[in-house]
């Protein structure tokens, strides 16, 4: 948990087929202390085997948030997921990994396309317990 209280409560890696390709899915639950998470950004992961990937460089709205408007269905904790189209960038089973993400909440539209939010950069370290690679393929080292 960070100094403001935002945190990542769960991260899980899974692999599976879509229509034609094997993809890896990263599922994550995040919370913020005073209201539901409304934006995320600067989202990166790396593992102890040297794999890494960055999904977001800049913040983007999530959880039914659009500028100053939010719907009544915002959730805290907020569950989100990201597709990793190259499964060999994911951490092999039994490998420790790190996730870094910025969580934004209490966002208020300031006019002139300016939005003020409380934010916190959060780190999570976990162990991948799932085999995320296609059946029959060798796990990368």
Can you walk me through this structure?
The protein has 141 residues and is mainly β. It has one domain (7-127). Helices cover 0% and strands 54% of the residues. The chain has strands at residues 7-17, 22-31, 39-47, 52-54, 60-61, 65-66, 69-70, 78-84, 96-111, 114-127. The strands form three sheets. Strands 3, 4, 5, 9 and 10 form a five-stranded antiparallel beta sheet that branches. A three-stranded antiparallel beta sheet has the order 1-2-8, with no helix packed on it. The radius of gyration is 16 Å and the shape is elongated. The mean pLDDT is 79. This is 13787_t:CDS:1.
Secondary-structure topology with pairs:
Layout: E1 7-17, E2 22-31, E3 39-47, E4 52-54, E5 60-61, E6 65-66, E7 69-70, E8 78-84, E9 96-111, E10 114-127
Antiparallel strand pairs: 1-2, 2-8, 3-4, 3-5, 3-9, 6-7, 9-10
How would you summarize this macromolecular structure in one to three sentences?
The protein is mainly β and 141 residues long. It has one domain (7-127). It has strands spanning 7-17, 22-31, 39-47, 52-54, 60-61, 65-66, 69-70, 78-84, 96-111, 114-127.
Amino- and carboxy-terminal Cα gap: 31 Å
Query: Would you tell me the overall average pLDDT?
Result: 79
Number of domain units: 1
- Count of discrete alpha- or pi-helical segments spanning 4 or more residues: 0
What characteristic shape results from the CA principal axes?
Answer: elongated
Strand/helix succession: EEEEEEEEEE
**Class by alpha and beta content:** mainly beta
The strand count comes to 10
What can be said about the biggest beta sheet?
5 strands, antiparallel
Over all CA atoms, what is the radius of gyration?
A: 16 Å
Tell me the fraction of residues in β-strands, as a range: over 45%
Query: Helical percent range?
Result: under 10%
Uncertain residue ranges: none
């Amino acid at each position: 948990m960070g100094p403001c209280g935002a945190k990542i409560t769960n991260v899980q890696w899974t692999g599976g087929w879509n229509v034609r390709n094997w993809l890896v899915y990263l599922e994550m639950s995040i919370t913020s202390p005073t209201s539901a998470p409304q934006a995320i950004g600067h989202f990166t992961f790396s593992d102890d085997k040297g794999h890494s990937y960055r999904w977001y460089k800049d913040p983007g709205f999530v959880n039914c948030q659009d500028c100053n408007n939010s719907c009544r269905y915002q959730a805290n904790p907020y569950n989100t997921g990201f597709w990793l189209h190259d499964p060999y960038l994911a951490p092999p089973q039994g490998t420790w990994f790190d996730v870094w993400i910025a969580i934004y909440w209490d966002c208020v539209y300031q006019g002139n396309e300016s939005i003020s939010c409380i934010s916190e950069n959060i780190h999570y370290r976990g162990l991948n317990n799932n085999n995320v690679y296609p059946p029959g393929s060798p796990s990368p080292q």
